[in-house]
Prior knowledge:
Elements: H1 2-8, H2 17-35, H3 46-66, H4 69-86, H5 94-115, H6 124-135, E1 137-138, H7 157-168, E2 172-178, H8 182-186, H9 191-201, E3 203-211, E4 217-225, E5 240-244, E6 248-249, H10 256-260, H11 282-309, H12 315-343, E7 344-346, H13 348-365, E8 369-374, E9 379-381, H14 382-403, H15 407-412, E10 419-428, E11 431-438, H16 445-454, H17 469-477, H18 497-507, E12 511-517, E13 521-529, E14 534-542, E15 545-550, E16 556-561, E17 566-568, E18 571-576, E19 579-585, H19 586-589, E20 599-607, E21 610-616, E22 618-626, E23 640-645, E24 651-655, H20 657-667
Helix pairs in contact: 2-3, 2-5, 3-4, 4-5, 4-6, 11-12, 13-14, 14-18
Amino acid sequence: MEDKKEEKGFFKISEYLDDYFSECEEHITSIKRNVLCIEPFKKPEKKIMDELLRSFHTIKGLSGMVGIEEVEVLSHSMEDYFKAIRDGKVSLTKDAVDTIIQGIKTLEFVLSERKEGRVPPPMDDFNNRLKGLYQGKQLEIQGEKTKEVLITLGLEEEVLSKIKDEIKKGKKIWQFNFFPSNSLADRGINVGIIRKRLTDIGEIVYAAPKILEDGGVTFEFILSTDKDEITFSAWRDDGLKWRRYTIYEDFQAIKENEEDKDITRPEKFARIPTTNIVRVDLAKLDELMQMVGELVITKARLDDTIKRISRYVPEDELDFLEETHIQMGRQLKNLREGVMRIRMVPIGEIFDRMRFVVKDLEMETNKRIKLEIEGEDTEIDKLVVEKMIDPMLHLVRNAVSHGIETKEERIKKGKPKEGKICLRARTSGDSVIIEIQDDGRGIDIEKIISKAKTDGLIKEDFVVPHSAKEAEILNIICQSGFSTKDHADMASGRGLGMTIVKNTIEDLGGSLFLETETEKGTRFIINLPLTLLIVDAFILSSGGHLFAIPQPSVREVIEIEQEKITVMENNELIIYRGVPLPIIRLSKLFNLKENYGQIIYGLVIGGGTNFLAVMVEQVLSKREIVVRPITDPLVNVKGIGGATELGDGRPVLILNASDLMDMAIKRHR
């Protein structure tokens, strides 16, 4: 019936999907923010509950309109669960809060799968679990509920009886699923090995092969054990998945009419009120920004043209031309800033997600963490926000996994048992500064160096120079494959996170810096441009070539006198405001011919406690440039972050400050 309507032009559901996913994303963000205000064993505020119910109800209705049944039913179950909490039918225990968080993650996962055009796995187990919590009876042992749950449909009564007996003995029950593959077989991992591993840590009370929908096979085991999850946390890469197990009863008591009521079906269309908000695809804003970039280049060409013809044009006409040109420049600047304002969003979008991540990590690691946020209203380009989600996630996970100690360790050290992570953001000129700081154990530099030598990442005789200690350590931990953990867990340990962080930040034209102090904590400092396409930059010359460097990357431009340069251990430095400042000649980095005069210009770059002056022959001007990325791998050069063109058509290479820092450090080794 729906296909016929689409053919006749009544409606096309596909036309509404983009708006649907955007709307759901906004409601999920609101749900997360409100759930973080809920505390175990405390009754939530009525305002919070009303907003949560409204968000789930809206997602349910919208999903019904576009025919996405999985989201519709799941949000309906979550709505009913919150109604049960509101009405006092479900106690808001810590387990209940954990269930809420898992429900939101499940809802987010299903939406993500649908958005990518994939069919999510059946959600019947989780939906039944929710319904069991507020409509059925959960088996309770000594007044306590187990932490994770799973519907026990399809198991024989003998197995169920055995599971109940084991739970009464205080055992933990886990369901494991092993998914065999050729790559695992090549590593010597098969079902026999998995069975032996499980019997080594507990008793297998049930085992059976199961055929998957795609024709594959999985081996299911139910294990009784007194071991914690950390015992087998490293097995996830060996084809294993697991979850905690308990039992529900009396599911047939759910009435069909209660299950179906208040669900908006696809054919029942609701009228959506109009708003003064228009959603625009980010790609369209990119196109608009590129057009503005072309106008910036055209204006630069006009600048040069006016300079060339000024001697031939009568003075009064030249004044009129220059006045018009200045006015056009002002209007172009306003246009650029207007487009930028459309693209700008609060960085709180990322910070709010990190609240939820920290809450999740608390459950995984059994650590207590307080998250403090400052500057969440700081605005940044939407594209930068999207690309910074993964790096921020890795840094927060590392802070929890490597930085924050366990409650027992912190008490022994005289610290508060609750660890603290601070997320800060602020603008500084045309850049935004983001900080991720923890009050944990700090980075053990000697351990980092020892592990890097063991892994062959640095030479055995390598010694960290004191002047660039933290920069060197940052370079080591950002190398692919480096990790101080022997086994990966849910929080960290695969040796890829910091590489992703550094590469992403540098791809965005930003820089990453590190500060750490033993037993005091660690701080990562990220310097990012507010926008990526059009930036203010210094135009400079070195070795007979022109270069540009984005102004946000430069802390200060100073004059350096030749006779005040000191050579120490083959490294050049000057005294800068009372402290030694290492310097590097740009001509040496790129093997260019030197032509320095008596006065040399230095561009002070870096952040945190790591600074460096890049020596150039001249700083010619400051102007707007349009950044053109260099995508051809054959012409990519470390230290160069892109290219631009001036008004006279000359191509100019754009320097990458972070790369220059790395190149200088390696040159000084």
